[in-house]
Amino acid sequence: MPELPEVEVVRRGADTWFANRRIRSVQVLHSRATRRHLHGPHDFSARLINARIVGTERRGKYFWFRLDTGEALVTHLGMSGQLRVASPASPGTNHLRVRIGFDDDRDDLMFIDQRTFGGMFVDDFVEVPYPSAKRDPGRASRNAGFEVPAALSHIAADPFDPLFDQSATVRRIRAKQSPIKAVILDQSVVSGIGNIYADESLWRTQLDWQRSAATVSRSKVIELIDNAREVMSEALAAGGTSFDSLYVNVNGSSGYFSRSLAVYGREGQPCERCGGPISREHFANRSSFRCPRCQRRAPATV
DNA sequence: ATGATAGCCTGCCTGC
DNA sequence: TGCAGGCAGGCTATCA
Questions:
Q1: Residue pLDDT, tens place only, A277-300
Q2: CATH number of A91's domain
Q3: Catalytic annotation present for A2
Q4: 3-state secondary structure chain A
Q5: Is A196 in the same domain as A96?
Q6: Contacts of strand B, CB cut-off 7 Å?
């Protein structure tokens, strides 16, 4: 559910509240929440207890706590996951899946997830290489690589990542025949973009989501990536997009970017660029919103 | 290899 | 009022 800006809001909150603290206790209240931890909930807890959180990092919609054990506590919010701070004395809440306590007796970390598409797992780091275009011969140490949890090695850099290689990403996008929207939602091509920001970026670029990626010009793809970066930074500045209480930051408050959306969820309402009605179409068992006037569909070739 | 689809879950909203 | 059906911001596995 949450896309890059929402995950980044949560990561920042998590960093503020949990960095430099040592884990004392771990409760797994629903085993599905740790299903991606291959050795089970007991091993999950054992690897965390006594570990100190060094800091937090993010790639796309995943973020993780770097531990002083050399491992990562990886978190994905899925569609409905939340990270909340809670007093150690407070009772659990509905949909509480994992609760972590610290040796300073200050606030607990609660992972809450109604639909259990999200989860947490502990993982080793692997090094991902710097893209060749970003190599800096004068600073060999910087070129050594960047570490990500092993299970995330297939996740591409997101448009804010220092490792993001824009020209390589443009080439990869244009090599695909699929609808342009499916390609920018593919986290192994470019990460962080979900259904909302895909539609918003396509609207800003005046592209029909159905267009085969291979038919979009190189400059238009560059514009699309720039627009995705732009809309996501605006959303981040607004504290994220939220339609309901399912997405909140660690304090439980929600962002207000939903009022700035141009197409997403605005079926029938006027396009702010041309005044025509926004349409809603089915795409991969979900919805796609576009302005049929500004985002023209090429006539079907028969 | 790439691309499309089904499945995982729960809660809420709509329409009958 | 009750209930079935549709829908939700994502990812992964599996099939063609």
A1: 999 998 888 899 999 999 998 876
A2: 3.20.190.10
A3: yes
A4: CCCHHHHHHHHHHHHHHHCCCEEEEEEECCHHHHCCCCCHHHHHHHHHCCCEEEEEEEECCEEEEEECCCEEEEEECCCCEEEEEECCCCCCCCCEEEEEEECCCCCEEEEEECCCCCEEEEEEEEEECCCHHHCCCCCHHHHHCEEEEHHHCCCCCCCCCCCCCHHHHHHHHHCCCCEHHHHHHCCCCCCCCCHHHHHHHHHHHCCCCCCEHHHCCHHHHHHHHHHHHHHHHHHHHCCCCCCCCCCCCCCCCCCCHHHHCCCCCCCCCECCCCCCECEEEEECCEEEEECCCCCCCCCCCC
A5: no
A6: A 32, 94-95, 114-117, 176-179, 182, 284-285
